[in-house]
Design brief:
This protein is mainly α. The chain is 50% helix and 4% strand. The strands form 2 sheets. A two-stranded antiparallel sheet has the order 1-2. The N and C termini lie far apart (115 Å).
């Protein structure tokens, strides 16, 4: 009786053992999962580069290039918060020029004479409203910054003078040395620092700086109009109420 009772159990055990062996063999013979290359995995997980507006790149150009000669007296360091949200970075820039966030972006030269001596006899103009006041406007600024060319045959240049066929000067002889050079700035968003690109970006910044408080004024103007409309509605309702009760 005991032998007949254990016989089915032994058969079940042998069947389970066989299935386990087959499963192990199948796993051993199956191909290993393909591993993604480390560089591919890093590319998939890396954050994309932040996108910058032309005005933001233009501010970088102004900080690193233009402000070494030009002022922007009608703008303050703190005004740049619209393009550079890092207050610490703005404070560092201002402190390098012995100023604070409330200070205007003054000329780097202590006097007009020093400025002229360092720029071939011409004092660098203030750039606060240059995009609006110069003849030709932003298009001229953009083309002029990218318009420097080698001196053509038959043209003689005085010392500290440069040839620029776009420049609004006598026979296109310009006192300002070429300010932009290929690859001179590394933009955080990966934009290539070509001369046409930088000329376009810094022009966009000068247009923005010409009226850097425009959005604030528009917001205040809209708020005032809404307030007046609401006040007018309240006064009209009060007038009607008084008219009924009179």
């Amino acid at each position: 009786m005991m032998r007949s009772c254990f016989r089915p159990t032994g058969m079940v055990f042998l069947a389970a053992l066989s299935l386990t062996s087959l499963s192990t063999t199948a796993r051993a013979n199956s191909p290993a999962p393909v591993q993604a290359p480390a560089t591919q995995a890093a590319a998939l997980t890396a954050d994309p580069l932040p996108t910058m507006r032309p005005e933001e790149r233009g501010l970088m150009i102004f900080q690193q290039v233009c402000s070494s000669c030009h002022s922007m007296e009608r703008a303050h360091y703190g005004d740049m918060i619209g393009l550079q949200p890092s207050v610490t970075a703005l404070q560092h820039w201002a402190q390098q020029r012995h100023a604070g966030l409330e200070s205007p972006i003054a000329s780097p030269y202590p006097s007009v004479a020093v400025g002229k001596a360092n720029n071939g006899g011409d004092y660098p103009p203030d750039l606060s409203h240059i995009a609006r006041t110069i003849r030709g406007g932003p298009d001229y600024i953009r083309q002029m910054l990218a318009g420097y060319r080698p001196t053509p045959p038959g043209v003689t240049l005085a010392p500290n003078t440069y040839y620029n066929p776009i420049a609004l000067t006598h026979h296109h002889k310009f006192k300002m040395r070429p300010p932009l050079h290929e690859g001179m700035i590394t933009f955080p968003d990966g934009t290539q620092a070509t001369i046409p690109q930088m000329a376009s970006d810094v022009t966009a910044f000068l247009q923005w700086a010409d009226d850097s408080h425009r959005r604030t004024r528009q917001f205040i103007g809209t708020a005032v109009l809404l307030y007046l409309a609401l006040l007018g509605g309240v006064l009209l309702a009060l007038w009607r109420l008084l008219k009924r009760t009179a």
